[in-house]
Amino acid sequence: MIEVSDVSKHFGGLKAVNHATLTIEKGSITGLIGPNGAGKSTLFNLIAGLYPPTSGQIFLDGEEVTGLKPHELFHKGLLRTFQIAHEFSSMSVLENLMMVPSGQLGENLWNTWFHRKKIREQEEQVRERAEDVIRFLKISHVMHEKAGNLSGGQKKLIELGRTMMVDARIVLLDEVGAGVNRTLLGEIGDAILRLNQERGYTFCMIEHDMDFISRLCNPVVVLAEGTVLMQGTADQVKNDEKVIEAYLGRGLKNKGLMKTGEAA
């Protein structure tokens, strides 16, 4: 679905991404891990259109999308979430979700004067969809709560809910588990799996928790110094000498140090 071909991004003399090539297959949950400073978030930003690459090409379903802006990719079904959730804190969970679909009739002043019935009908459709998303994510108990009052994990669920409001085809998840307690992290993982298995979502996720990665992701791509170091299953990655050395700067004798939860 996504093909990154020999992509580089330079910031002055810094090569944040350096001739990276990888494929995100349709229907997969692909994990992206690597040491701090490996270029993971920069690569996400290139795919999502926040930065243009210095060189290389990016394709979505065979169509070159190199350099397209985030709003253009949004309309093609590619969405990116962020490590820090971006909610409208003074609005309810329901209202946050209802804000997502673009081109709503009520956004046009002319329509508010002359097409009020159509606006009400569309708003009811959007509301029904938002309520369905809330039920799917099992957060009905906070539906009318202000989003700013929610925990970090609940806000991450709202981020997932936003992607469901626009028929996302591929979602880039940036550290969805960061700062989330283990119980809620399990619920977030359940929601990702259900979206993948029941609704056909394709995911690529940056994550630091190898338990979480191992549960959800196949394949796992390892990035180091802006370059793809290897790709394989979670077990293959955790036991690969090159990966261990990239994280620890040591060889096989320290393989036992690469324990669950330390690998990203």
Automatic annotation (TrEMBL):
Q: Name one GO cellular component term.
A: plasma membrane
Q: Which residues form the ABC transporter domain?
A: 2-250
What InterPro entries does the annotation carry? Answer: AAA+_ATPase, ABC_AA/LPS_Transport, ABC_transporter-like_ATP-bd, ABC_transporter-like_CS, BCA_ABC_TP_C, P-loop_NTPase
Q: Per UniProt, which keywords does this protein have?
A: ATP-binding, Nucleotide-binding, Transport
**Family annotation (Pfam families):** ABC_tran, BCA_ABC_TP_C
Q: Which SUPFAM superfamilies did the record assign?
A: P-loop containing nucleoside triphosphate hydrolases (SSF52540)
GO MF, one example: ATP hydrolysis activity
Q: Which domain of life is it from?
A: Bacteria
| Protein name listed in UniProt | Branched-chain amino acid transport system ATP-binding protein
